[in-house]
């Protein structure tokens, strides 16, 4: 017998959905990438291309899901996308072809975007109706949970001496287990929207333009480390288990990050918190390639996990506040800017790494871009709607 729905239950369902589609579906590529590069002879440029294919799929899926065509079918579409995410992860183990990787990761990006949009729509509506908006932090914490779970999984596979293909198969199995749990926990029924209310026009605003720019720059800056962090550790000779320990730190730091940064919003404003987080993340990106020994990668992982999930949520919240009359349009614009940044980041980083012979230069470029994102968000923060 299915238990009676509750706000906490809804938030946990969202957390597990985000863990499967985002923490595993999108980011398990990071800890598995060094093994793929060694086993298949992939260059950094090719690895960046595969990552970008996933982000192109994410952009396409997010823009498609932002429309009104799915109203009333959010739960069904979310579950179908979760199942697809699991199957596509396992499919990565069946091929060594770069072309096949591009297709699979593109489709996985579409699936992860559908889960993000539809799960967040369901959970946000349920929590708002129950007056428990603070539980959104549980929902978004699922990204960190999935990253941590993938780190533990890959660490165990390292101990067993398993090849990279086993990581993708186990990722698919973990995702199927998460799909089953979400199917049982996710609330039944459709999301009720404001019937008959046409969305207004998106008004021009200097603050909104700065926030959209900041979000796009953030997408470029964070994804370089989020994609190549474990490869950076491999490059420095840190050891296979240490690679997974670094990724575990990133995941564990991400779980409470939205709640912790949320406490800073009343003092700094949502744009100010975004700017502060981007500066802190830039420091972590520099640390990951500049500090010797174990300290640099661990600090980089800690600051990455502690910031990027919260900044992703705060950027969308800032857009919503600046354009409350056109929430779907501003979501599409913010997502497009973020997606373009994510697509270009791995491509540029891979090319720079191949040219320079290491990930130091691309990481320094990423840090500089994050500082530009902070400056743009700080400028947007002068708008009273973001205070």
Describe the structure.
The protein has 387 residues and is mainly alpha-helical. It is 79% helix and 0% strand. The chain has 15 helices and no strands. It has helices at residues 7-24, 29-40, 44-65, 74-91, 98-130, 136-140, 142-160, 164-185, 206-235, 240-254, 257-262, 265-290, 295-322, 327-356, 360-380. The longest helix is centred in the N-terminal third of the chain and has 33 residues, at 98-130. The protein starts with 6 loop residues before the first helix and ends in a 7-residue tail after the last helix. The model is unreliable at 192-196 (pLDDT under 50).
Low-confidence stretches: 192-196
Q: Strand content of the residues, in percent?
A: under 5%
Number of helices: 15
- The pLDDT mean sits at 88
Please state the CA-atom Rg, rounded to the nearest Å: 20 Å
Order of helices and strands: HHHHHHHHHHHHHHH
Write the layout of secondary structure elements.
Blueprint: H1 7-24, H2 29-40, H3 44-65, H4 74-91, H5 98-130, H6 136-140, H7 142-160, H8 164-185, H9 206-235, H10 240-254, H11 257-262, H12 265-290, H13 295-322, H14 327-356, H15 360-380
Helix pairs in contact: 1-5, 1-7, 1-8, 2-8, 2-9, 3-5, 3-14, 4-5, 4-8, 7-8, 7-10, 9-10, 9-12, 9-13, 9-14, 9-15, 10-13, 12-13, 12-15, 13-14, 14-15
Features:
mainly alpha; 387 residues
């Amino acid at each position: 017998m299915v238990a009676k729905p509750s706000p906490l239950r809804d938030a946990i369902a969202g957390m597990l959905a985000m863990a499967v589609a985002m923490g595993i579906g999108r980011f398990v590529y990071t800890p598995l990438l060094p093994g793929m590069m060694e086993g298949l002879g992939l260059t950094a440029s090719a690895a960046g291309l595969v990552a970008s294919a996933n982000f192109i799929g994410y952009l396409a899926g997010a823009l498609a899901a932002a429309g009104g065509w799915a109203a009333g079918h959010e739960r069904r579409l979310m579950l179908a996308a979760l199942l697809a995410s699991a199957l596509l992860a396992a499919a990565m183990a069946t091929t060594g072809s770069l072309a096949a990787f591009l297709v699979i990761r593109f489709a996985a990006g579409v699936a992860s975007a559908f889960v993000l949009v539809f799960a967040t729509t369901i959970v946000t509506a349920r929590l708002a109706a129950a007056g428990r908006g603070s539980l959104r932090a549980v929902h978004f914490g699922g990204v960190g949970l999935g990253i941590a779970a993938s780190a533990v999984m890959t660490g165990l596979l390292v101990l067993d001496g398993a090849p990279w293909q086993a990581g993708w198969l186990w990722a698919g199995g973990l995702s199927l287990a998460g799909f089953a749990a979400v199917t049982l926990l996710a609330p039944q029924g459709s999301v009720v929207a404001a019937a008959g209310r046409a969305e207004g026009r998106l008004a021009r605003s200097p603050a909104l333009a700065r926030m959209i720019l900041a979000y796009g720059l953030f997408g470029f800056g964070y994804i370089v480390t989020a994609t190549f962090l474990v490869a950076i550790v491999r490059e420095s000779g840190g050891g296979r288990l240490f690679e997974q320990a670094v990724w575990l730190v990133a995941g564990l730091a991400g779980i409470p990050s939205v709640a912790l940064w949320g406490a800073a919003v009343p003092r700094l404003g949502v744009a100010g918190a975004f700017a502060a987080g981007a500066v802190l993340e830039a420091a972590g990106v520099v640390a990951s390639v500049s500090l010797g020994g174990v300290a640099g990668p661990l600090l980089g992982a800690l600051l990455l996990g502690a910031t990027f999930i919260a900044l992703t949520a705060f950027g969308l919240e800032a857009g919503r506040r600046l354009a409350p009359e056109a929430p779907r349009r501003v979501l599409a614009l913010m997502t497009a800017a973020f997606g373009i940044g994510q697509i270009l980041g791995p491509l540029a980083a891979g090319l720079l790494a191949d040219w320079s012979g290491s990930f130091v230069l691309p990481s320094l470029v990423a840090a500089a871009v994050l500082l530009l994102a902070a400056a743009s968000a700080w400028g947007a923060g002068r708008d009273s709607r973001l205070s």
